[in-house]
Amino acid sequence: MFTHPQKDPTRRVFTRRALFFMALQVAALGALGRQLYRLQIDDGKHYARLAANNYIRKRLLTPTRGLIVDRYGFVLADNKENWHALLIPEETTDVTATIERFSSRVPLDERDLNRINREMRYKRRFIPIMLRDCLTWDEMARIELNTPYLPGVLIDVGTHRLYPEGASLSHIVGYVAPPNGKDIARSPLLALPGIRVGRSGIEQSQDEQLRGTSGSVEMEVNAVGRIISELNHVEGTRGKKVCLTIDRDLQQKVINHIGQQTTSAVVLDCRNGEVLAMVSTPSFDPSLFDSGVSHEQWIAWMNDQHTPLVNKAVSGVYPPGSTFKPAVAMAALESRIFSTTDRVFCSGHIDIGGTRFHCWSRTGHGSVDLHLALKYSCDVYFYEVARRIGMNRIAQTARRFGLGVPLGIELPHTRIGLIPTPAWLRAHHRHWNLGDTIVSGIGQGFVQVTPLQLATYTARIATGRAIEPRLIRSINAVQTPSIQNDYWDTLNMPQPFLKALREGMYAVVNEPHGTAPKARLNLPNITLAGKTGSAQVRRVSRALRESGHFNSANLPWEYRPHALFICFAPYNDPLYAVSVVVEHGNAGAESAAPLARNIMYDTILRSPIKI
Amino acid sequence: MNNSFKFYKRLFLTKPKSHFFTKLWRINWLYVILIFLLAGTGYITLYSAAGGISSRFATPQAIRFTVGIVIMITVALLPQRVITAAAAPLYILSIILLVAVLVKGHVGKGAERWLIVGGIQVQPSEFAKIALVLALSTWFSRINYKQIGNPLWLIPPAIMVLLPVLLVLKEPNLGTAVIIGGIGASLFFAAGMRLWLIALLLLPTPLLVQFAYTHLHDYQRARIETFLHPKNDPLGAGYNIMQSKIALGSGGMWGQGYMNGSQAQLNFLPEKQTDFIFTMIAEEWGFVGAITIMGLLLLIILGGMLMAIFCRNQFSRLLALGISMNFFFYCLVNLSMIMGMIPVGGVPLPLVSYGGSSLLTVMLGFGLLMSAWVHRHTDSKFY
């Protein structure tokens, strides 16, 4: 019975082999322990990092966009809180029924429903879906009252960009729109929900200032992305407040004066270049862009020959016409070829190089000096001046006056215009004829400038300083240095010459037989000096001119000459410069000059300076 | 029975029909404490896996464990001849269940494994392992050492092993089939199968592996493929392995703290309450906690093996060894799987993982182990 283990072969073999198994088991678990050590300790850091990547989601917080205000602090671009209704699908048992009940209380249109259906398909069930944007108080009340019947529906607050001034400042302030793929590739901040990118005007040029910096929240999420808890919350900084030089009320007055015409007008402070008003009509409603412009609206804008989307004050280029003449006169005086007293005889036309160039007055102005030539706007005088001094001198002086050069205005899409020279035309493989110089002498031909450049040019004549127009007074209360009156350097043009130009422009308005008597201010002690211009957009053929029936007012609108007027006031101590370009407005004296006068009148009346 | 035997009986308390309390006293209570410790670990971990809700996993598991303890003690106290008599019927029952699960089983993750009997989910392959251990132990304990040396005596037990292996393969559950085969082989080996025969059988193994691989199901092959290259498919089949490794690594030395494992608590870890529960332990308790649990597992395995060695009759020895090997294979496959050392296959960690079928069969196994230990002094003659 009591067999010794060693004598029972079954037990002996069993014991031996069981011990062998035990050794194997110890070895196997040892190997597993070693592997566990490798995974947990040796490679632990690597896997711990992967784990953190798994569960920490960093979400950036959309910063509040900075305000844009006018020089007196009136808000031009605001952030308006608006309420929207959201639906969290997983919190309702029947999504379609909930949406139906919702739409019976707050109407949803076809577009909304399509968008909701689309979002439902690709969003996870716990991510809220926007039902309706921009709820009114009434609609909100209806939703709140019916909360028990609308499970999963909640009301949330977001911001919209609001432009209280609407169309009157849309070209300057610009507008915002949701960023596109290109923007997002440039800056990851723009991928944030609800963020807007400036697409025009100050909103575009100062986009980075206005944008602010994003805050961030670190959230713990689970494997399906549901937020478990908030780990870390860093508040961002809101965008900076941009204060413009614009006077909101003056801007509105200018728009009222312009009425229905396709016009641009610029009001500058002569001393420091502050843009007090900059108008381009017709305009558009900037709020249309926030939610996306409809295709029909876009086509309508694109096909409108009055180009409502273009800020013509900086992006429209026009031949300056006779408003160019003071620049030519200055070139002549500086060349010392002409003096203020040198006279030219105007018989109504002049023949140069076998071509006849007509003065606007068919009967001629007789013998004119510089003063009279400016006053009458005598073309023949300036034909002769241009012929004698040559194009390069004219171009050089014109550029010093700010014509055909970039002016550093804080707006996107500005155009430089063009002051042609023989070298420029040669670069385009064409030969410069003397005739090109002659027509350039009266601001026709290739010469093209923007209304803003005209205003700058006027201000430079008025003050003799190389002022540049500026739209921004301060950013977050940090003043732009240029708003100091002695910021800009002198033009280095001799004072007597500038005085001669100013006197000529004074005569245009205030002396008998000047071209713009309608521009007189009729204010005691304050006088206005200006220069008219009528720029042909089409060459007048000899046959038409000789037929005697030529009257530009009978032409179709798009062939009529542009009407221009530049002026500054007060004459004795210039404070303001105004330029007006009425597209296809015929004669500058008729349509542009009275408009400019009215604008100047209001500007002076609004002036905080005692005159 | 002669007097000398009666005297012996009186002295050493080894009468063939022992008193109930005597038998109860013979149960290895130290071993039962180890089982309680492991089940307690499972309870604590399941509580964390449910995010601090005991009613989800932990409480049902505790109830099942209580039932399991009752089963274990009942089985341990059964007369050994009842158990040997039940071996053949239980084996046949297990084969019937395996066939039934093939015919009308419930599909669970691509493989047919579940059978619902009277509203209870049953995993016949789990039961088959125990039944096989029982059947083989009975067979080998009834032939002598010389007979085992004859290959002809090994043919019936070989069929007994191959039948469930093939049926489980057909389910198809590769992991369990390998475990059943492993248990069978270890019992052959422990029973005294001659070494020359083993060597002869091992020769064509490479060919068999080749054959097996070509006959694997697509999903099984895919598992092996993703195991070999887990990063090729980080969100697909390789996801489990990657997330398990990440969870292990993020545990570090001391762990992320109880109920704080980011991978498990945030549901990145798949099957965290069943197959990957050890990963969760390692993430929350770190290497220290995980190696402690592994030590506990090793103690349970080696304790079972030692009990087998100290049994005096061959049936008890083989039964104890078979059950211990079963437990060992469970642990080996599960731990290797969660550490990314072998392809993933639905093998839970015994006593810790959530799941009734596994727990109850494991406890039934421990009951048999205890039965072997309780009847360790019984001579083979007496049953």
Question: What is the topological layout?
Answer:
The complex is a heterodimer of chains A (611) and B (383).
Chain A: H1 9-42, H2 44-55, E1 56-61, E2 68-69, E3 75-87, H3 95-105, H4 110-122, E4 129-132, H5 137-145, E5 153-162, H6 170-173, E6 176-177, H7 181-186, E7 197-198, H8 201-205, H9 207-211, E8 215-221, E9 227-234, E10 242-244, H10 248-258, E11 263-269, E12 275-280, H11 295-303, H12 312-315, H13 325-335, E13 344-346, E14 349-352, E15 355-358, E16 366-368, H14 370-376, H15 379-389, H16 391-400, H17 422-427, H18 434-440, H19 451-463, E17 472-475, E18 478-479, H20 495-510, E19 529-535, H21 542-547, E20 562-569, E21 576-582, H22 588-606
Parallel strand pairs in A: 2-10
Antiparallel strand pairs in A: 1-8, 2-3, 3-4, 3-5, 6-7, 8-9, 10-17, 11-12, 11-21, 13-16, 14-15, 17-18, 19-20, 20-21
Chain B: H1 3-12, H2 20-26, H3 29-49, H4 58-77, H5 80-104, E1 106-108, E2 111-117, E3 120-122, H6 124-141, H7 145-148, H8 151-170, H9 174-191, H10 195-202, H11 205-214, H12 218-228, H13 238-251, H14 262-265, H15 277-310, H16 314-338, H17 356-374
Antiparallel strand pairs in B: 1-2, 2-3
Helix pairs in contact in B: 3-4, 3-15, 4-17, 5-6, 5-8, 6-8, 6-9, 6-16, 8-9, 9-16, 13-15, 15-16, 16-17
The largest pleated sheet of chain A is described as: 7 strands, mixed
Order of helices and strands of chain B: HHHHHEEEHHHHHHHHHHHH
Major beta sheet summary of chain B: 3 strands, antiparallel
Strand content of chain A: 15-25%
Rg of chain B (CA only): 22 Å
Question: Roughly what is the average pLDDT of chain B, rounded to an integer?
Answer: 83
CATH class of the largest domain in chain A: Alpha Beta
Tally of contiguous helical segments of chain B: 17
Q: What is the largest interface, and how many residues per chain?
A: A-B, 41 and 52 residues
Helix content of chain A: 25-40%
Number of DSSP-assigned strands of chain B? 3
- Broad structural category of chain B: mainly alpha
Return the structural class of chain A. Answer: alpha+beta
